[in-house]
Amino acid sequence: ELQMVESGGGLVQPGRSLRLSCAASGFTFDDYAMHWVRQAPGKGLEWVSGISWNSGNIGYADSVKGRFTISRDNARNSLYLQMNSLRAEDTAWYYCAKDHMLVPGTGTFFDYWGQGILVTVSS
Amino acid sequence: DIQMTQSPSSLSASVGDRVTITCRASQSVSSFLSWYQQKPGEAPKLLIYAISSLQSGVPSRFSGSGSGTDFTLTISSLHPEDFATYYCQQSYTTPALTFGGGTKVEIK
Question: What is the least distance, in Å, from the CA of A84 to any CA of chain B?
Fold first, then answer.
């Protein structure tokens, strides 16, 4: 069964850092691009970042560019999001999402999602 | 970035009703339009991709249509488990993938 489980969330002060992880199983992880999508409490969905199967193609939303870094370890079937200089507006549920393609781009859609992990940025 | 506008933002309907949700893009997204369903406390679930292709396992009462900038998600006969929030998403321009604001389908 395909599964993705996020971890690493929690309460953090503004300006601090946090690293999210997503452990994938049930599919050939290095055959697909992967993404992070977030959702502020009571709000809509916002794409955060995506990474190709071989980490050669990476993209970020303008709202996180320069502060967040996406990475993956295909040997560990894991996706990561390093979040630095966190702001109150980064408070959200963060979902790990699988692409149906090798490289994120035109035609990307998210065919499987993790259950999400909550990040709260507050003093 | 391409802006995606959904309407209505919420609607009330009864079991058995036909429901139509609209998604409009600020510029053409060609055929790169997908729909997701999200129930409270759950992750989103892919329903439709490429305007009208049904994801495996999704009931046939769900359908998608449209082209260019205007798209529709239709539920032909609403079931109790369909009460949820629905989002459209474009992937014509990358890396800035964008979602609509969502349409909440509530029980009348």
Answer: 21
Fill in the amino acid letter for B6: Q
**pLDDT digit string, tens, across residues B83-95:** 999 999 999 988 8
Contact status of A123 with chain B (Cβ, < 8 Å): no
Once rounded to an integer, what is the mean pLDDT over residues B8-19?
97
pLDDT tens-digit map of A17-70: 999 999 999 999 999 999 999 999 999 999 999 999 999 999 999 999 999 999
- Nearest CA to A93 out of A72, A117, A120, A77 is that of A117
**Pick among B54, B55, B97 to test the A interface (most A CBs inside 10 A):** B97
Structure tokens at A67: 């502060």
Mutate to test the interface with B, among A46, A70, A106, A111 (most CBs of B within 10 A): A106
Does B43 contact A110 at a Cβ distance shorter than 8 Å?
no
